[in-house]
Amino acid sequence: MAADPSKKSMHDTEFFTEYGEASQYQIQEVVGKGSYGVVGAAVDTHTGEKVAIKKINDVFEHVSDATRILREIKLLRLLRHPDVVQIKHIMLPPSRREFRDIYVVFELMESDLHHVIKANDDLTPEHHQFFLYQLLRSLKYIHSANVFHRDLKPKNILANADCKLKICDFGLARVSFDDAPSAIFWTDYVATRWYRAPELCGSFFSKYTPAIDIWSIGCIFAEMLTGKPIFPGKNVVHQLDLMTDLLGTPSPETITRIRNEKAKRY
């Protein structure tokens, strides 16, 4: 598989703030950037192991961002599966009272599924089968822990040169309890639109099920096969239009179960 072309050298880049544990790691290059901060590939000088270090800038600047980061850390410290990215270490700040940045050490994966699909137009049926197998296996484990990922997309699935995949970014995930109020499931923006299940697009039901993650995997698998998103909606209405154009109108039985009147009229 082709490597991720977006990687940049770490030369002249100030990665660490005043963290004593930083001396244990030698940063090699930037492998990802986002609104949260930056991810650097590094080597643990004590063990020689290659790792990824996620630097989260100004973690307390926005409460919603801090909540997502805390949620992801709490879940990934509990989830242990070959197809789920693993947290190896969380660096302790020099002062528990005054710190702005957080450094989380993960196992290193060279790329993500988005770049794999974009850079490889010669993926074989065997690639497709192995990718889908890993995704469904990881999802079975996640759902067995009553966790809904809620934001599955190619960019949130890490990949390496051995065609191994690992699901990451659990910032929007939720733990489902049978006795939890249904309203709790609708508090946050859920899932990137192109991979969002129809019941999320239209708020069709008051409480959703693990099927929302299965829908996302289906959209990802279609993208593997065709090389492009299957439902690239420009907005929510266009997203639903693309779904019904391809899959047809929902059955009367399904429509009667919809509680949102605007969605039902659509």
Task: Please tell me about this protein's structure.
This protein is of the alpha+beta class and 266 residues long. It has 2 domains: 8-107, Phosphorylase Kinase, domain 1 (2-Layer Sandwich); 112-265, Transferase(Phosphotransferase) domain 1 (Transferase(Phosphotransferase), domain 1, Orthogonal Bundle). The chain is built from 8 helices and 11 strands. The chain has helices spanning 63-78, 113-119, 125-144, 198-201, 211-226, 236-247, 252-256, 261-265; strands at 8-9, 25-34, 37-44, 50-56, 87-90, 102-107, 111-112, 147-148, 157-159, 165-167, 174-175. The strands form 3 sheets. It has a 6-stranded antiparallel sheet with strand order 1-2-3-4-6-5, covered by helices on one side. It is globular and about 60 Å long. It starts with 7 loop residues before the first strand and ends with a helix. The model is unreliable at 181-188 (pLDDT under 50).
Q: Report the CATH C-level class of the largest domain.
A: Mainly Alpha
Write out the CATH superfamily name of the largest domain: Transferase(Phosphotransferase) domain 1
- SSE succession: EEEEHEEEHHEEEEHHHHH
Strand content: 15-25%
Contiguous low-pLDDT stretches (5 residues minimum) are: 181-188
Major beta sheet, strand line-up:
1-2-3-4-6-5
- Shape, principal axes of CA atoms: globular
Number of strands: 11
Q: What portion of residues is helical?
A: 25-40%
Radius of gyration over alpha carbons? 20 Å
The helix/strand class is alpha+beta
Summarize the structure.
By secondary structure, the chain is of the alpha+beta class. 32% of the residues lie in helices and 18% in strands. It has helices at residues 63-78, 113-119, 125-144, 198-201, 211-226, 236-247, 252-256, 261-265; strands spanning 8-9, 25-34, 37-44, 50-56, 87-90, 102-107, 111-112, 147-148, 157-159, 165-167, 174-175.
